[in-house]
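Quick one, T. Sequence first:
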Amino acid sequence: MRGTKRSGSARRGSLSHSSYRSTAADVAKIAMIDIDAEMGRRGVKSRMLIQVHDELIFEVARGELEEMTGLVREYMPKAMELAVPLEVEVKTGPTWGDME
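C-alpha cells:
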C-alpha cells in the first residue's frame, strides 16, 4: 500500500472484517478434517478438492450428491461452538464457476 492513510475507524472496520474471515476460515478447516474423516469411514468416492476462505469445494461422484450434501450440512455447524447458529449454504454445478 503506497501513500495511503487510513482513519482510525477504517482501521477498526478492517480488523473486524479480518477477525470474521479468520474465524470463518478456522471453522472451515475444522470441518474439513471432520468431513474428510467421515468420508473415509463411509468409503465415498467423492473428493474434497480445496478450501477457499470459508468454502470447501468437492468433486462429487455420481450418485453421492445427496449423501455429500447431508454430510456437509451436518458437519459444518458442528465444527465450532458459536454464540449464533451457523448457516450452511450448499451450491452445486458442473464447474466451480457454474455453481448455483
